[in-house]
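job 3f2a | input accepted
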Amino acid sequence: MKKTIKFQDGSVQDFELNRNGFIQAVSYKESSADLKLSLNHKSNIIAAAKKSSGGYRGFFQMGESALFETGYYLGDLGVDFRKLNPEKEKQRINTIRTTFDKNDWKGEWSGKNGIHSFNDFLTKPELQLMAVSDWINFLCKRMQILNFNQYYGKIINGVEVTESGAIAGAHLMGEGGLATFLGSPIFKTKSAVSDDNGTHISSYLSMFSGFDLESCCKRKIYITLKDSSGLELKNKEVTIISKNNGKYISGETRVKVKSDENGNLPVIVRNPNTEIKIVADGKESNSIIQKANEKQKATLSDFKVTSHSATLETDSTPQPRPQVNKTPQEVRNEQGQSSTSQEANVTPASKDVNFNIEIVEGDSGKAISNMNFFLTYKGNIKKHTADSRGIKQGINAEEGQDIEVSVEGDGQKQVIHHFQVSAALKNKTVKVKLPVHSFNISVTQDDEIVPNTLFSLFYRGREIPKRTNNRGVINVRMLTGFVFGFGIKGKSLVLSRVEKSSSTTPFTVNGSAVQASKLYEVADAKRKQAEDLKKQQQQKEVQEKKAKEEAEKAKTEADKKNQTKQNNTYTESGGKPLTTVSNQSPPTSDTTRYHIYHDGKIKRENKAATGFAEFIYYDQNGKTHNLGKSKFVKAPMRKAGNEVIYGSCYLIDFTEHGSYKSGNIGYKWFMTGGNIRFYLNGITMSGVLGTFMSLGYEEYPSSGGSLIDGSSQAPSVTHRNGEACDFRYIGKKNAHRTNAIWTQNNDYDEQRNITLVRELRKFGFTVFYTQDGYSKKPKISGTSYANNHYHHLHIGACLPKIEDI
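job 3f2a | predicted structure (805 res):
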């Protein structure tokens, strides 16, 4: 749905009647920005920095006060509005607001959403739009707090007050100007209702009316018009009649609107409990009651409500209106009654029949557990839910009546089956097949197809990778009515419902989604390469082991008899030990054993071995914990820039030691985000494992160390030779186990992260990189600042108290 606006400069522009369209329209009015073009277009770069005579800046011509209210600008006093209590600190807030009358922009910035300075705001249009969106959300809340939303639907000076119009009016003329126009008693003094150009606020309310701001007001009604044959009524003029008994608006209002090319009327927002009817061609719909905090959808066919969501009023008495076309169910019932009318005098009274309904997959016939569906019976629709076996028991209906089975749809239910109730169904189960719908998914970016790109579908608890063909299309088959997600690896970006009437479901993505998809593909290819190398190494080990076994078998019996026995202790006649058994590795062992002690000391046994590494931890109670043994991987030594130098390093795949638990101590160590940097050297591994074991039990998500060849994977430059590792910050209530933790967020656990760094330092780590939010400061005392480390802790250069034995 689009709206055509003629601006004061004489230009005419079309805008979609959604939130993006609203932002585009107001930005065009305020700064001549054309946000339908790329943000990097010359005209938009100029508009993003545009300055008015009053010091207002950017696309929306925002002032210091607006950016203070939304938490971006701290002002001359350096106060963050997000940390103030609007109820308890009104006087302080009002005092701060008095400093914003000049818009000189000399104050500090909070860093919210990456805006750290005035220059960031002016030169980064994508960040500026985030501030604009937050400002709209702020004004939405103010409409509710000031009760301005109770005027929605009122006609003043011939102009309908709408949600988007009121918010535009508040932005352009201030809350005082809007209050004066509405006649609200909220402010004691009246404000101007015309701007410096002489434009009355009513012009702005009309100009920016009818946009659906989506996440703003929670109560909305969406109506689609169709003719008697089910076709959309395009450009149909109707009258919306609203009967309101609110505090600030009462009585009846009438507004004329037109449907768009899809038969959709502009979004309707009224006071809760307002009675709404649609009138056209002398016909009047039945009533729809505006709910308080619900989004309602209805389809009017020949002006009869034929389908509606559960939030629509169902008990209202329909108003008198002309005869309308009958539903398919009404026709079937009448046909059934006609065929039996001659037997009516001898047929006993109708009886109720009790039966069950089972919903199954249309192709496989498998039952669908906990399935929601709807039954229409005698013109009334009711929701039902199947049990874990896919069966809804105890359905009771009158013999001879028609039952219509449907599932949820977008705006109206989707009928999948109907049947007539008969005595033969008594205590039986009616099996209803849910159709499998074949359809296409089309993917575009900036109105261009996105070919040969990997995306993910999230369907029935599974993530399914799917690639677009050379026409930007994905062919799929899904169960009718089911909701599925569309996105990139590991992240659903948008939800959609399977509609049996739709052959194509379009999705629009931005450049970031396409780029992320490409990067994930590269990472997957590298991971597969690493897995193949690992598999080859394992096969090589098996072959070597088999060769050694065959070599052992080749020894002669005489050789066996002459071998030195060291299974027990023997002494010479003088009583001095000849050989002694110990738990140390014999000189010929191919295992380096790391003995890790709770106080940070590490004893390295058989340092020269290059076959395997074994890690043993000794807690403060003297208990021994074997943390596993795994094979060394040989890699060339490297210097900065990954250039190979003389020598070799021996690395361990830390996922081979990914978890351990004994009583209340242990750890779970796992990779995040599809990383393949699995490798650390023995000393670094010992320091990490010692730290984990000394802290009780915890889980440690990690983005890893070095690659299998000892190199540092870009963009990191310090993760060479297995000397460094990155970890997710610890979160409050263990939030880090499932979510990323940023140092500027409330779920960052400061004390536990300080403790983690302290223990890592005890076990020899000397380099730590952190970042306090987006600032250029370290987050934890004793660590160093590094950019882009607000979401992870970097550790490196492990130099423990080590003793070779």
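job 3f2a | The first helix runs from residue 19 to 31.
job 3f2a | closed
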